[in-house]
Amino acid sequence: MIRLQNLTLQRGPQRLLDGAELTLHPGQKAGLIGANGAGKSSLFALLRGELGADGGDCLLPPDWRIAHMRQEIETLERQAVDYVLDGDQHLRSVQQQLGVAEAAHDGHAIARLHLELDNANGYSADARARKLLAGLGFSNAQMDQPVADFSGGWRMRLNLAQALMCPSDLLLLDEPTNHLDLDAILWLESWLKEYPGTLILISHDRDFLDAVVDHIVHLEQQKLVLYRGGYSTFERTRAERLAQQQQAFEKQQAQRAHMEKYIARFKAQATKARQAQSRIKALERLEELAPAHVDSPFDFCFRESQKISSPLLDLAEGRLGYGDKTVLQQVKLQLVPGARIGLLGPNGAGKSTLIKTLSGDLQPLGGRLQRGENLSIGYFAQHQLDSLDNKASPLLHLQRIAPSEREQTLRDFLGGFDFRGGRCDEAVVNFSGGEKARLALALIAWQRPNLLLLDEPTNHLDLEMRLALTMALQEFSGAVLVVSHDRHLLKSTTDEFLLVADGRVQTFDGDLDDYSRWLVDYRARQIPAGTSEPGADKTDRRAQRQAAAALRQQLAPHRREAEKLEKALGQLHEQLAGVEAGLADAAIYEAGRKDELREQLAMQAKLKAREAGLEEQWMAALEQLEALEQQLAQAE
Prior knowledge:
Elements: E1 2-11, E2 14-24, E3 29-34, H1 40-47, E4 55-59, E5 66-68, H2 80-85, H3 89-103, H4 107-119, H5 125-135, H6 140-143, H7 152-165, E6 170-174, H8 182-194, E7 198-202, H9 206-212, E8 215-220, E9 223-228, H10 231-242, H11 246-269, H12 273-288, E10 313-322, E11 325-335, E12 340-344, H13 351-359, E13 366-371, E14 377-380, H14 383-386, H15 394-401, H16 407-415, H17 433-446, E15 451-455, H18 463-475, E16 479-483, H19 487-493, E17 496-501, E18 504-508, H20 512-526, H21 541-583, H22 594-635
Parallel strand pairs: 3-7, 3-8, 5-6, 6-7, 12-16, 12-17, 14-15, 15-16
Antiparallel strand pairs: 1-2, 1-4, 8-9, 10-11, 10-13, 17-18
């Protein structure tokens, strides 16, 4: 188990943990949450042995294998699949030793190392690595490309795949969903649910935490507090504690007022019953949990547009793409004030292409795109974070678009995004990804948009900022079109879904659970008939022979066991037949032979009970033997 006792952890002058206590048992899955800078990543470094405790004890079993998701990549010329395989260091060591032994023609070493390779599941390693990559969204062709060909987000996916490839007793994942789309997140959820070891997960995705973890570790005020259950249970439990505080009560009342107003407006429009009910439940649940976020540093809204058009955008017979490449065809989409649309679809299907076209970053290749006279677009995408002026402060960014506004008004507005005091005047070059995302959202919110086009707006945002963004979008009176892997944001802020797939944009009549099932069917349709999953075609004949040999070795003891049970059952039948022959003799029922009769009846009952047990064991052994024989036939 993991045991932290009276732990003190310090980075420079800042004390992160002071007298902290925590116990996690093998197989538990815990989400580690806390404010940015509270010490979550430092705690990971302590568990990996890269940091030492400044006081107290950090105790882990000495034989535990620890895997973690690296934040950098060095071997840029290595093929993607080989980079992932490097995660299994023991396998790589055996392969290296085997290469040396084969070069030296050392027969004994070669035989021993082939056995070690088999024990390390080395013959299936390539196929397993490719299966991981496929789950994370890589195509077959991408798996054989060098790491240098991939962007930063895709390299982080490679680091995640490498961590999952490593056999481990403890898996440490720091924001694994940051660079994943919804498809890959759903796949990762399924993989982590089956992971047999201990998992500690840093994440700002509440639905992901709810799906994967069974405990929450909250890092707060230099302590570690363990809560049983997922993130939703943590919120309820913490809300119960904080609801007694006057500050929590007052904030809850204010939040309840605007939520009731929003729910009332939404119910009046609720024509799609299932999605409407899901949305209302999400809002009501958010109201119930308001006290859990009383200490949130974020409080903002999107300023209302002074003029509006209807429709805001009207796209008809749209053909969208890049250059000569058509990605989407026959696209029909009309956006009116109050529309709340979430875009769903597989990775690479064209969701970002659609948003870029609507924003004006791309021109339609065909069709008609008409913009409303008073259209004002607020467009958020990850590339906009890079376009911020690194030398300018948040205040200067805002002054450039509002030169006539009072400085104090701008400072107050930025304060709602947690840019306060000196942070308002600090150059952006020193900001984290989350801080840059908050600034980009602040600039959009100030400019009074009436249409928000949001492409993965929650990347890099922590849980409190995600909640604040959700509430701001609920109050926004304009139209919203959003692509997000954050299911809580989608459920809480959208009225309908559009499905982008197979070159088309169509209404999706269902909720996110329906979409998960649709994805499973979609992936199955993408695999051509008669083919197997990624990597299977790479398995060579030697691996197949090794597998067949292993199955033959397993067959022998199972066959011997089945024969042994059959022989014992035959002997038992002979004994039982003798007893029953004696009981068939009328003389045994005479008064003077009562004791003998009692003994024979007891023996009969004993033998029948043993017969039933032996027959059950024998049938099970035969079924297992038959299954192995079928596997062997397929392998050969």
